[in-house]
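User: Sequence in, structure out. Go.
Assistant: Echoing your sequence, followed by the structure tokens.
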Amino acid sequence: MSHDKVITVLGATGTQGGAVTRALLADFSVRAVTRDAASPKAQALAGIGAEVVTASLDDEGSLRRAFDGAYGAFLVTPYWEHRSPARELAEVENLIGAAQTAGLRHVVWSTLEDTREVITAGDDRMPVIGDGYRVPHFDVKGGAADALFAKSGLPTTYLLMSFYWENLLGLAKPQRDPDGTLAFHLPLGDAPIAGVASDDIGRVVRRVLHRPAETIGATIPVVGESLTGEQMAAALSTALGEPVAYRPPTPDQFRSFGFPGADELGNMFQYYAEFPESYLGRRDLEVARTFNPEPLSLADFLAAHRDELAPDGQRPACRLTSL
């Protein structure tokens, strides 16, 4: 593969799309799709060699133009911008229709599993959300959206995403509790969580596109490490040079925080903690190493971002808006 092959990257100014754009520029011509080509993030991508174009997931025609002449595409949907399962499915239908029209030869789809495969309808451990979902941003992708890609006949690789370590730099980073202790709060109990630095997403996509014969039709986990809350606290302690306590709320406590999406994220964390055979079982580290042999460890990630870890003062914990 060489720079004469164009890869269109959706969500290019977001966490996933930005990492993919940066990684692919080493080997491909990258067409970075955004809704605002004049934004500082879009201009930064143009500055490193990406062709920045505008398109909307609500406008299939604009997506066709973004895909025209491309070899392949990295596709991701912005569920948290609208939190609407119906709209996300409509976005997926537009992506598929445009990709079929353009004749893309390799589609890399950022997805998650349908948690309802293991959290049955009669399971009362967590609430049902909306139209029968448990974790909508998981369930829509892993259920109906994945099925649409499979039915479409598009040559698709399914990338199974994990928790972003970047969340520990943002609204989940350690805060000073009222007793003066520096602590972070994720409702995971004692369970490990599969996590990844966003730059590793880009590295995986780059390798996937170089190996179409073995990746088209496959589901590939994107994960760096699986760590418990206590292990994450230890890594944070080292990075900050101060003890960081792990003080997990219960999922019910998390859901009661009341911010938009608290119920869904509470369910997500409960899925992580109480269904590890599904969450961790799908994210096999040995398989992941095949496509990213040297992922960034959490310790090294935090060391590289130490300046962003300083606590902002006391505030409610864990108002996450991503995986």
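User: And one key feature?
Assistant: The two ends are 31 Å apart (CA to CA).
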